[in-house]
Sequence to fold (343 residues):
Amino acid sequence: MFHFRAFIAASIVASASLVWAETAPAAGPYKVVNEAKVGGEGGFDYVYADADSRHLFVVRGGNTGRISAYDLDTVKLVKEIPNVKGGHGVAVDPKSGHAFSSSNPVVMFDSKTLETIKTIDVTGRPDGILFEPATEKIYVLSHAAPNVTVINAADGAIAGTIDLGGAPEQGASDGKGHVYICVEDKGQVAVVDANTMKTTAHYDLGEKGGTPAGLSMDTANNILFVYCRKAQACLVLNAADGKIITTLPTGNGCDAAEFNPKTMEAFSSQGDGTLTVIKENNPTTFVVEQTVQTKKGAKCSTLDSKTSQIYLITAERAAGGGGGGGRGGAVVPGSFTILVVGK
Fold:
């Protein structure tokens, strides 16, 4: 006997399964290949992989502010650089080997020997940091004025400051004299002329661009990947004019992003415990290739350009102040963990 209701129910299930198969990212090759609970006191923010020196740098806060340097290949602690106050991240000039912390004062050190070279007094509240290769300068980003302090990587001298008109998060350089920086509180990407150290444009991200925090770049094709927390989405932009090419979904609470030119993939780490992998098939076609499960709170990441592995950091948090973005209470002692994602 033909059961009409059973037929309808089965059809609905089949249709739902088909839609899920079409929209959900397929299982991909990336997975967590190493999880190292390395411990250590204090909070943390960004993480930076220096492929040349084979060091992984993490700035730790708390009572003993310092930069922890780990071996990229073994994920074991090599040395700690002391006396880092209010630090967030590290950037390295591969030519000179000089490294810098986004702290106040900025700590300049040798990326290979890990010895402190000098400290540099700055104003504002240093947060993000990046190296600009065309002019060989370090950009220290601050949520308070001045938004950017520019430092000569060769000698640590302050070259100037830049007004972005708002609070910056992550930035990227095209290597040809242009720097692009997320302006978190304005829903914009600021464009900076690295030679004049002036802001030349602001790309308004519109309704889909609330709270841009992560940014990476395909420099060969002049493509920006801008990750917006409010929309939980990646806006793919033409870097020349800021026009949005497409919008793709991500997880919740992005705080860092990378692009790997070897694989033509963009990565973003979210505090909800996901790593989104976007494949650039060509300069106009982009798809979410994979969503990798990491660990809650792993909102910051970095790419080892030699091995193409992604490193993320997280820790267990005390009760209070949680949320999908992975921002919780105080770090549980001894729980700081480094995750390595690879194939």
